[in-house]
Request: fold
Amino acid sequence: MIEHRLIERMIALMDKETQRIEQELVPDKEFIRTAVDFIKTYADRLHHGKEEYILFRDLAKKQLSEEHKRIMDELIKEHAFARENSRKLVDSLDKYLAGEKNAIKMITENMGILAKFYPKHIEKEDKRFFLPAMNYFTKGEQSVMLAEFNDFDRQFIHVTYKTIVSQCEKK
Reply:
């Protein structure tokens, strides 16, 4: 849940930037690049990655209640929704940088969607899913999962920068 607190801080900044752009009609390109990188890298690949590749994988092996199965399926769809809107935000920024002035509206729409989406998504995870989900696991299983989360974190930085170098080599 500590990751959620950092995501909430960035989302608050994105909401503030969305409001500023709507008033001034001039996007802060560097902030948007930073926000997109944060959402794609930290919120999606790191945080959602641990949920999807570890927690949800292990929960799929359990006999979940209908409610918890439904919520897990919703969370998976919400992760895809966030990915799609992040992609749209990148596309709208690219269009703006290419000179399309109407792209400002697309930037504020997509950033606004993410700023509205994440608080509700996080609240669902924090209050309706994560704590009840832990009851499906023994203390030993929870310890193994925590160790796997920590290993995911340690490996993540290496995978991230290996990908960056590979992309640069292709250019």
